[in-house]
Design brief:
- The chain is α/β, with parallel strands linked by helices.
- It is about 60% helix and about 15% strand.
- It folds into two domains: about 55 residues, Helix Hairpins (Orthogonal Bundle), CATH 1.10.287; about 210 residues, 3-Layer(aba) Sandwich (Pyruvate Kinase, Chain: A, domain 1).
- It contains five helices and five strands, in the order αβαβαβαββα.
- A five-stranded mixed sheet has the order 3-2-1-4-5, sandwiched between helices.
- Helix 1 runs antiparallel to helix 5 and helix 4 packs across helix 5.
- The mean pLDDT is about 85.
């Protein structure tokens, strides 16, 4: 049975943990606000680029650019975005579970290579019998477009060299601080919609094909940048929720331990009083 000193020490330890989780929640909330602002700022550019890509791709032949051409092969590159750090609930495990579901559904993991962004994904998949073609950390601070451009250029160059036939992206879509949704999106080949509603007529100079050669790689970079922003906001939202839950649990533990401490202290005092009374009675006899 724990002593009063042990329980007091435990209460102090839980209070210290509660201070840490509360501070981490506040830091995550501040980072989430900045990450959400970044997503909102990037949306108009992303949407306009998507409109232009859809318009261009629907007007040209599939063989007008390698990034539009479908291949007969079954080699797949899976780009998986996770975080570098933990303490964010089921954020990383949900992304990894989505990736594993895709791999199982493919039926042949030997045709799949992994491109991992984030230490948590690397730590998990390096213990599995899968081919990791590229891996890199997310890095500290807010996602930078330069990082997305570097990832996108490497993927585009490898696809054009026919290192694989398709590329899929797995990231976390930010819904709210309490809701993040894993997303599986095909990056390559780029598939235009069957029907595009045209509201603007474009004049292409020098040609549609020349513009595609310049804008399609940038489109891939922008999709990756958007995914990095969404995943970053999702991570901060998940960590904020996890730390809030941990802080509440710590409070409940402190209340329970304090109640136990008071009961044991009361029992010890009662025992001492009984011993004093018993001693006094013995002296009277």
């Amino acid at each position: 049975m724990p002593s009063l000193r042990d329980i007091k020490r435990r209460i102090k330890s839980v209070k210290n943990t509660q201070q840490i989780t509360k501070a981490m929640k506040m830091v995550a909330a501040a980072k989430l606000k900045r990450a959400h602002d970044d997503i909102v700022a990037a949306r108009p550019y992303t949407q306009k680029m998507l409109d232009i890509i859809n318009s261009l791709a629907s007007r040209v032949r599939p063989d007008a650019h390698p990034l539009l051409s479908k291949r007969e092969g079954s080699r797949v590159e899976l780009l998986i975005l996770t975080s570098d750090r933990g303490l964010c609930g089921g954020f990383n495990s949900n992304l990894i579970r989505t990736a594993e579901g895709f791999i199982r559904k493919s039926g042949n993991s030997s045709n799949i290579t992994l491109n991992l962004v984030g230490k948590k994904g690397k730590d998990y998949f390096k213990r599995r019998d899968l081919t990791i073609r590229q891996e890199r950390p997310v890095g500290s601070g807010r996602p930078k477009y330069a990082a997305a451009a570097e990832i996108g250029k490497e993927i585009v160059d490898s696809y054009i060299k026919e290192s694989f036939d398709e590329t899929y992206l797995i990231y976390s879509e930010f819904k709210s601080a309490l809701s993040q949704q894993p997303v599986l999106q095909r990056l390559l080949p780029i598939e235009p919609p069957a029907e595009v509603e045209e509201t603007t007529e474009y004049i292409y100079e020098p040609s549609q094909e020349a513009i595609l050669a310049d804008i399609l790689p940038k489109y891939i970079e922008m999709q990756i940048f958007k995914a990095l922003l969404e995943t970053s906001a999702s991570e901060h939202g998940a960590r904020m929720a996890a730390m809030d839950s941990a802080t509440k649990n710590a409070k409940e533990m402190i209340e329970g331990l304090t109640l136990r401490y008071n009961r044991l202290r009361q029992a010890a005092i009662t025992k001492e009083l009984m011993e004093i009374i018993g001693g006094a009675e013995a002296l009277k006899g």
